[in-house]
Design brief:
Elements lengths: L9 H9 L3 H11 L11 H4 L4 H11 L4 H12 L3 H7 L4 E4 L10 H6 L28 E5 L6 H13 L9 E6 H4 L6 E2 L1 H8 L8 H8 L5 E6 L24 E2 H9 L8 E6 L14 E7 L2 H11 L3 H13 L1 H6 L3 H18 L8 H20 L1 H21 L6 H6 L4 H4 L20 H11 L6 H9 L3 H6 L11 H15 L5 H13 L4 H12 L9 H12 L6 E2 L8 H6 L1 H6 L2 E2 L1
Parallel strand pairs: 2-7, 2-8, 3-5, 5-7, 9-10
Antiparallel strand pairs: 1-8, 4-6
Length: 594
């Protein structure tokens, strides 16, 4: 059986190793010295005296193309500690029946506008191929979409693990999980389906091609999973009818095999599961999709559960949860599981090293503290000069890929950013999860970046703009003084930037853009527009018919920040058609509008 392992951060790996007894840890290290198709054997001399932290670094550096998670999962199975794998597999929220549409907002803006779970049907991983109505209806192809980092790959791996350990979906005989990252390098090759499986799924190496071909032509129930359609570099044109049929035993190009599998011309009875970010999901024509759902990451309750598990002490856990809930930006971002990990890492470090120091309140604060944490630890291990050099190289890489709109990058991109591929692998344990651009700029350039972000067609610079403006504050620059050339950003420069943003808000830009600009003002610690509207609301003297475009935007921003939006009293603001259109985002976010 094929078992998928959860995508693990270095901290996840360390938590697993710390749960092993001494004898188990010794056996774990001994098994790492044995070569396998997942990874070459690790040297005994490096493992013999390795601590658990050292072993994590070695795992990240030495794991093969399938990553450390696959290797750790294999070893845990051999030492009979499957419970540790299961413990990692919590859950993410999945909503049924979400139609795929193209949204030109930055993906983080999409989760800020997310509908309330109470209005939707939640889907358990094991029920991915069950009809939301509960009635029996055959489902051939499922399309799961969700923003980057929200938990799509985790969901797939949880499904496969539950199947492999006989907890669910036992009507399926075999699961073949692929990722488009694996498939991309094979786009120019001609392979049979059996050969493609051998190339991408290491656990099948002992199954002969003849046996796989027999399985394909017999009455076995098969599931093919294709994870990460948004990362595909294959020419998958499914909108054009392809009259060619493919013999499953013959070789074809990878894109032809996938087109025929998804289009139902190859292995017609096989089930297909595709995951994608929303913007790429339209590559699959609706006629090929039986069911659509969306991964939403952590619910509010799951966020709390994560922090309570992470912080043993009840008092500290309550302090962290209260702090996250008090900041709208942080609370929203914690829908993304990896951001919960970043927030927990930062807050734990701040409380441990600075005690009663003020906790980070904004996204810029959080990422700045995360970078400070990484600088401190990499300097201890690799030295100050080397550490800062690589952080700057990774910043350059992140910014260049951001401008291009790329989520993933390859070796050639590292070379273009002056990152030595071999040396960079040493740092992979530190920067496994996320790279963020951090730069110092003169005040006059801030207006250029604001304009550039407003012009981006898909909002991919929106979040960068928040970080960039937040980094102009002297408080954040002081924390990163080793990395940044201080800009001596004066209060006058800051005020000019604030005024420029307010002018842009008053220009009647789209609701999405204006909301992001309010987040930018928050990063600059300016809440004057919002406070003006709040005073009007408190006094009861708000006249919606006399609001400026900027005040309308501030009103929408405040209303969307309200925790309880089950019922929205639209008539309280204005009965005009203009008011309805201005407040439409609030109407959409509420369960009922009066």
């Amino acid at each position: 059986r094929l078992a998928g392992a959860s995508r693990m951060t270095p901290e996840d790996l360390l938590n697993i190793l710390e749960d092993l007894g001494e004898e188990e840890f010794i056996k774990f290290k001994w098994l790492l010295q044995q070569s396998s198709h997942l990874s070459p054997a690790m040297r005994k001399s490096r493992l013999q005296t390795a601590t658990r932290q050292d072993t994590v670094d070695l795992l990240v550096q030495s794991a093969g193309r399938f990553g450390p998670a696959a290797l750790v999962s294999k070893v845990l199975l051999k030492i009979d500690r499957k419970d540790l794998l299961q413990a990692l597999c919590g859950s993410v929220y999945v909503a049924a029946g979400r139609e795929v549409h193209i949204n030109t907002q930055h993906e983080v803006r999409q989760i800020e506008n997310v509908l309330k779970p109470a209005r939707e049907t939640a889907v358990k991983p094991r029920d991915m191929f069950s009809h939301p109505s509960g009635e029996y209806q055959p489902i051939k192809t499922v399309l799961t979409n969700g923003i980057a980092g929200i938990g799509k790959t985790f969901l797939v791996q949880k499904f496969v693990l539950d199947w492999a350990e006989r907890r669910a979906n036992q009507d399926v005989d075999l699961i073949f999980p692929f990722t488009f990252r694996q498939l991309n390098p094979l786009r120019a090759e001609r392979l049979s389906l059996a050969q493609l499986i051998h190339e991408c799924i290491p656990e099948t190496v002992d199954i002969r091609e003849e046996a796989l071909n027999y399985i394909f032509t017999s009455r076995f129930k098969l599931l093919f999973v294709f994870d990460g359609l948004d990362e595909s570099r294959l020419p998958l044109d499914l909108h054009v009818d392809d009259v060619r049929s493919v013999d499953v035993t013959k070789t074809s190009t990878t894109d032809v095999l996938l087109r025929n599998l998804i289009g139902g011309k190859l292995l017609r009875s096989a089930r297909i599961w595709i995951t994608s970010r929303p913007a790429a999901a339209n590559q699959i024509p609706r006629r090929f999709v039986s069911s659509v759902n969306e991964v939403r990451g952590f619910t509010d309750l799951q966020k709390e559960t994560y922090f309570r598990k992470r912080f043993g002490g009840e008092e500290q856990a309550e302090q962290i949860i209260a702090h996250i809930q008090a900041s709208q930006s942080l609370h929203i971002m914690c829908h993304i599981p990896v951001f919960c990990w970043i927030a927990a890492t930062v807050l734990e470090d701040v409380l441990k090293t600075r005690g009663t120091a003020e906790l980070p309140n904004s996204l810029t604060d959080m990422y700045t503290e995360f970078l400070v944490f990484q600088i401190h630890h990499t300097k201890q291990k690799y030295g100050s000069q080397t550490s800062l050099r690589y952080i700057k190289s990774l910043a350059k890489l992140a910014y260049q890929q951001l401008e291009k709109g790329n989520l993933i990058f390859y070796k050639k991109d590292l070379v273009e950013s002056n990152v030595d591929f071999t040396e960079a692998s040493v740092f992979s344990g530190i920067f496994t999860e996320i790279f963020k651009e951090v730069r110092g700029r003169k005040g006059k350039d801030q207006m250029i970046y604001i304009s550039k972000a407003l012009q981006s067609p898909n909002g991919h610079l929106d979040l960068f703009l928040r970080f960039f403006l937040g980094l102009s504050l002297s408080s954040n620059q002081d924390k990163l003084k080793e990395l940044l050339n201080l800009t001596n950003c004066s209060s006058e420069t800051k005020q000019k930037t604030v005024q420029y943003i307010k002018e842009k808000i008053n220009e009647n830009v789209s609701v999405e853009k204006s909301l992001n600009l309010f987040h930018c003002l928050n990063e600059l610690n300016d809440r004057s527009l919002v406070e003006d509207i709040q005073r009007f609301l408190s006094s009861g003297s708000l006249s919606a018919d006399q609001l400026s475009p900027g005040q309308w935007s501030a009103l929408v921003f405040i209303l969307l920040s309200t925790k309880d939006l089950d019922v929205f009293e639209l008539k309280k603001y204005s009965a005009s058609e203009e008011a309805f259109l201005k407040l439409l985002p609030v109407v959409k976010a509420s369960s009922r509008a009066l």
